[in-house]
Structures are given as structure tokens and as C-alpha cells.
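Predict structure. Chain length: 507.
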Amino acid sequence: MNGNLFSYIQDHTRDASSVALDDTNGRICTYGDLLGLSGQIANVLVERGVRPGDRVMVQVEKSVMAVCLYLATLRAGAVFLPLNTAYTHYEVEYFVRDAEPALLICDPSHEQALSQIAGRVGARIDTLAADESGSLFEAASVASPTFPTIIRQPDDLAAILYTSGTTGRSKGAMLTHANLLSNALTLVEAWKFTKRDILIHALPIYHTHGLFVAINVSLLSGAAIKFLRKFEPDLIIELMKEATVLMGVPTFYVRLLQSPQLDNTWSGMRLFISGSAPLLAETHAEWQRRTGHAILERYGMTETNMNTSNPYDGERVAGTVGLALPGVSVRISNPDDGTPLGIDEIGMIEVKGPNVFAGYWRLPEKTAAEMRPDGFFITGDLGKIDQRGYLHILGRGKDLVITGGFNVYPKEIEEEIDALPGVVESAIIGLPHPDFGEGVTAVVVRSPGVNIGEDDILVAIHNRLARYKLPKRILFIEALPRNTMGKVQKNVLRDNFKDLYLHPAVG
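Prediction complete.
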């Protein structure tokens, strides 16, 4: 039996004429089209020299063809490696050097700069634009749609997604075909997805939420997808008249609540899902008051896919991320020695199950450090489990900042700011933000007599980092608070400035 995730998607497809993806601009892709287009691209990948196990690195804008490229990579037995489209060439170079892809696919506007980077590791380069033009599309348009899906074992790699802690460089989380398939099938059942569903998809497709949750769950259930290139509140509200499910991040719901049109109700919508960042209890309550629906919040990670979910049938408790999904075990441990803790005791969240990744790319020691001997993965998130089994996330031991659904790792930004003339040191923290969940905030200590300002720092780093990583505010203080061991006390900084974005006088 073929363990390739694509073979399962193919087996679960509806008849060929059923709509799979509709970009709402006239581009409709049926399930038959998906099979044909992915076959054409898979043939191109093989012609380009891509072999099973090779990495195919992709930094392209969201499009129907980009989804077909993901499926084609699976069909060819290669490893799909998507990159955030906001990454600069400077950032992409690190990923290329680390992953050593056989093929790099980018937007045509970046081809010249990235060709040099790809060439340093012997990678070929192709292009794919948002309008689906580019060398990849041109080659695929004349390729055969017939392609025999490569046989893969369940434990073979299907994808690598880069993530990071608060120190060091980003790490590649290795996800197997079994990781992705088991989690998607679990979510299909948990969230009651069927071929009658129509999902509103306004998420990016370079991370777990928009790609592996939204796409895999929809295709494995035979659902249709309203495939928006970006988040457009008015369009989403209009689409609710015919759709059944919306997946989003807290920012989506905050902005949708700002529209008076939301007060209209449409009986077809059955489920609103939120993830990738904490959902404020106030947002949960206001959404239920305005729409009559309780948002279903869940908890996942790049390394584990989805771990928990508030129930489809049952109470969805604001401020919690619900119960462990079937087949997934969640426990709370003492952060110091790993001893399991009891009900309502706060500690480190650990998870175990078929959803948990195969390890970090070329980092066996780091992988071993994050795994318990009994197979539980140490998430780095702090939380507790209440008497009903609901998981509460109370903080992040690694000081990760989640803004608008994107993970931001402080050390990366701190290194850029600390390298500037006139800066002694800096600390990056996340502060409560009414729109983004958390606002990236820099606290900086200047050299004596130096008047470097907020704008000076932002100008200096804006081409070095993706836009979502840039601090929304830069604050200046005389010295960073430290404990007796000399470690910066970011909890003190977060407490001191916790109302920065919530005060009406501050942007």
C-alpha cells in the first residue's frame, strides 16, 4: 500500500467535475483539474532532476497553482519546503544553505537575486507568479497530466517547515506523510467535515494552519474551498452566504467584528475556527453575541500539527484550547525535571502521538533535547489542564511572540538591533495587542550620549527582516532588568509595558 499522502487525497476525491478550489476571481479548479495539474507539475519536477527525498523549496504568492505545486511535490516523492513570502533574500539564503534543495521556486521578480543563492548549493530555479505565469507554469502547460504517484512509506518525509526557539538559527521541523495524514483525518472527524462543506480560506499557505490544516482537511473530505489570496473582511462576510466553515487567526475575528454587516446571520455557516495565536475571551464573547456562534479554538504547533481542540459538540470554553484530539496525549510536567503534574498545576505542556514530527533537520542533538524518553515532545509552552480535561495555555517558556498568527523569535530581531551603532543591547517582547494578539515590541538600551531614535532603528532593519517581524514600537530604557544570574527578565518588561497597545492614547 502506498503511504504517500497524495494517494490518500486521490482516493478521497469527489467526482472529477466537483469544485475543489475557487479563487473568487473566475479561477475555478475542479478535483479533476487538481489531478491533472499536479501530474503535469510532477512531471516537470522529475524532468528538473528532483528525486524522492529531495527538497523543493518554494517562496511564491498564494495561488491555485501553488497548491497544485504542493500536491505535485508529494506525488513526486519529494519534500515540500514552503517559505514565508515576506522573507528577504538575506533570510532565504540561510534556508537554502541549510536545506540544500534540489529546486527553488520563486516569484519571477526575485529570480535574479535568488538564482545566485540557489547556485551556491547546486539548486536549479524556476518561477511561478501570483497570476500563474512563470517558467514552471510554462513547462507544466505542455507536460503530460499522467503521473504515477511515487510510492512512499508512512515515515518518509513529506515536508519541512522552519521554526525556531529564542536562540540560534531557525530549525527545520521534519514532517512525515503519516504525521500529516493522521492529523488531517483526525480533524475531518473532529470538526465533522464532509463533501458538502465550503471552506473560506484566507490564510497564507506556507505554514501549518493554512496548508496542512485547511488544505489537507478539505481535500480529504472532498470539500470545496473559497480560496482568497488575502484577508478581505467584506468579501468574507459576503461569502458566508454560501460557505459553511471559516478558518482564521484572532486578527480575522477582531476585524470582522468591526463590520456592521456581521449582524446579518446566515444559516449555512456551521463552524468558525481560530488558531495560531491566543484568542481574547472578549473577542470570543462578542462574536457569540453578534453571530450566535461560539468560535472553536484549537492548539497546534509546527512540530506537531494540531494537538487539542474545543469540541464540535459540547462546550467551547473561552480562554482554553480544548481537549486532546483522539490519538494525541497531552500532559503537564515540571519544567525543571519533567515530573508529571496534576490537575490545575502549571507547568510545561508536552504532547505525544502520530502527529508529532520526526525531528529537526540535521539537528539530532536538538531533537533529542526536545523529546522525553517516553516519546513526549516538550512544546516550550506553559499551561495547565483543568478538571474537565481542557488545556489552558498560560505562557511560553521560550518567550516566543505570536503576532497576527505569525511566530516571531526574539533573538533574530535582537541580533539585528544590537549590531547597530549606538545600541548597547535590546530585548524583544510581545505585548497584548487588540488587533494582532501580541505586538512585537523592542526595549532598547542606548550608548551614553547617543540619540538614536525609534525611526532610526526601524529604517536600519526594515530590509533585513520580514515586515511582520518589525517592532510596532521601540522603547528606550536605561538598563534591562536582570536576575541574579544575569538573565534578562522579560517577564518584568512585559509587566511594565503590558498596557502599551491597549491604552487609547497609544497606537
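Summary: The radius of gyration is 23 Å.
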